[in-house]
Amino acid sequence: MASRANLLVLLGCGPLCAAALLCALMIGPSAAQVAAPQAPASAAAAPSLAAGSNFPVASDARLAGDARQTRFILDLDKPVQFRAFALADPYRVIVDLPQVSFTLPAGIGTTGRGLVKAFRYGLVMPGGSRIVFDLTGPAKIAKSYVLEAANGQPPRLVIEFEEIDRTAFVQSLPPENRPELRSAITDANAATPDASAAAKPAAPPDKRPVIVIDPGHGGADNGTEAGGNDIMEKNLVLTFGLALRDRLEKSGKYRIVMTRTDDTFIALGDRVKVARNESAALFISIHADALKRGEGDAQGATIYTLSDKATDSDAERLADAENKSDAIGGVNLADEPTEVADILIDLVQRETKTFSNRFARVLMGEMKTTVRMHKHPLKSAGFRVLKAPDVPSVLVELGYVSNKGDLEHLVSENWRNRTVGSMAQAIDTFLAKRLATAGPGK
Ligand SMILES: [Zn+2]
To answer: Which keywords label this protein (predicted)?
Structure first.
């Protein structure tokens, strides 16, 4: 949360616009489509989505000033909320807007002025547009604001760039955006996704948010097992996942996609792909943990989010165990395609993380009223199945099959119904907030 707060302070932008943006990102398509927009292609793609809509229209844009101070002005038909921030290597400024219909003069942005080398714009996802400025060197956003219509002028978005040196530029970036921490992403840039990766069939007519439910393990991978009897994690979590699906489908508000509905092995990477291909609003992986004999006793449900650094050794042990799934199922990790590379993917990832954490907290708040929770119910570690950069994802360990009380719960229909109910409530709370913020007029 701290990093997001820093980012907002840096950007001088209220939480409302950030919320709108984050929501827009949440319903976004795969990261391949979040590639820096190419003006002609994206502008051409926009009308189908914008047809008959009430989206703000950007009708003209211009640059003024010199190599010390440059001003960008975008004419609009109504004020919009926005967020602007800088990126290094190469020097860029990104402006995220709600979905805007761009009717700018052809060829605009291909040549720059002052600190702006060029700019591109377009729709990057349903509900979200973006302008990317390529800078001639390090510059800061001295001011950014939206003017109401006045004196015969339409509403305008104004971004003022000011020359600074590299040190000041780098220091002005939030820590996670600084170049030295982004080497992995810079490396990934070498592998630019080709055009076909960005070309995706039109969105299905069903506009409901998609929730992907991922019952862990399956097939050759049994998951944890309760000693002495035939109870296997893969079966417990499948039964639970199907019950959660049925509950959520009843409301009619969501489209539910299961990563598996039977005893089939699914590689971790393929589970992530399901979430990404569906542009899911939420990915929930269901598991049940176990401690080995002699490792003590633990009980209660735990909710995990993705992190490079495990919260504690238990979380690390668990992530290692869950990540072994592919090896058990015979998947050669070396054959896994590398993550989709994109210069903006890190931004999306950070925002996804914020949403994953938010959902985890909402979920804990609901679950703890009906379900026994672990004494430290919120944790994070490097779970491979949570790595969709653009889909908020959590992994729920429903309890410990190694604990007698938990096991009794896990096989109880009554317990399952109550737990499914609290999860459905949390999903409603979380997504209702998102839909309200992303609704028309925002
Ligand atoms: Zn598991």
So the answer is: Hydrolase, Signal
